[in-house]
Write a structure and sequence with these properties.
- This protein is α/β, with parallel strands linked by helices.
- 40% of the residues lie in helices and 17% in strands.
- It has a seven-stranded parallel beta sheet, with helices on both faces.
- α3 (93-114) links the parallel β4 (73-78) and β5 (118-127).
Length: 245
């Protein structure tokens, strides 16, 4: 089995693309510790931890549990994140802070806490977004927080290279997860968001979580000479393509 003997932590592994990565790892024989704010509904042969990525005490506990259950790690998939659809005029300091706390601060300190457990040859993959390099109306704090993640993934790549640990980024476009990466919007707004995504994406559809998972696992285990890189899985959305008329 492809991932036999591998040990992985997946944050935000209870649904969406995190869950797709967890399933692929388990199918391949890996041992996995996954988190979400509420893991009580998860029925998988994995270690489970309810953990809020914005709380430093929870991140510390995640480190302790990872060490106790898994010991050394081959992969840390730092995946937790969410966006709101908030035009600038409606943005509050609370929305700004929470968006940065979950997406950026949580990712940074999760990597800091777990770095010591990753063995040489292991790797980190962070989830950012096509939004990190775009101007998408309503996604100001989210896009900036993901741009921060893209930046500090480069720094982690530099800092961990001497230990033979690679650090890469996957940046999805519109992906068909339960939330489409967006929280706090009515279902009709989410449906319109998804429809817009299908229209503006050059491949004229959204990704499946499994398509993103394939890129994550490629970066994690196959791309053995790739570090500090960003692999878009966006159907061409962020690639400045001009389609035939
Ligand atoms: N879907 C898209 O179109 C899209 C596009 C670009 C980027 N992304 C990014 O891709 C990543 C995964 O998105 P997804 O669409 O797969 O989302 P999802 O289906 O909403 O899954 C998010 C995961 O993170 C967990 N989570 C959310 N907030 C958390 C918190 N504060 N602490 C701990 N766990 C938390 C969720 O579990 P609980 O609900 O149990 O906490 C869940 O396991 C995110 O970073 C997102 O920003 C998504």
């Amino acid at each position: 089995m492809k991932y036999q003997g591998k040990k992985a932590v997946v944050t935000g592994g209870t649904h969406g693309m995190g869950l797709a990565v967890v399933r692929a790892l388990l199918d391949g024989g890996a041992e996995v510790l996954l988190t979400g704010r509420d893991v009580s509904g998860v029925d998988l042969p994995a270690h489970l931890l309810s953990s809020d990525a914005s709380r430093l005490a929870d991140i510390d506990e995640l480190g302790a549990v990872a060490e106790a259950k898994l010991g050394e790690l081959d992969l840390v998939f730092v995946n937790v994140g969410y966006a709101t659809l908030t035009p600038y005029a409606e943005a509050t300091p609370e929305i700004y802070d929470r968006t940065f706390d979950v997406n950026a601060k949580g990712a940074y300190f999760t990597a800091q806490r777990l770095a010591g457990l990753v063995r040489p040859g292991g790797s980190f993959v962070f989830t950012t977004s096509v939004a990190a390099e775009a101007g998408i109306a309503g996604m100001g704090p989210y896009s900036a927080a993901k741009a921060a993640v893209r930046s500090f993934a480069r720094t982690y790549a530099a800092e961990l290279a001497p230990r033979g640990i690679r650090v890469n980024v996957v940046s999805p476009g519109y992906t068909d997860t339960p939330t489409m990466g967006v929280t706090g919007v009515p279902s009709e707004v989410l449906a319109a968001f998804k429809e817009t995504g299908d229209e503006i994406t050059p491949l004229k559809r959204h990704a499946t979580p499994e398509e993103v998972a394939a890129a994550v696992l490629f970066l994690a285990f196959d791309a053995t000479f790739t570090t500090g890189a960003d692999l878009p899985v966006d159907g061409g959305l962020g690639q400045r393509l001009t389609l035939p008329v």
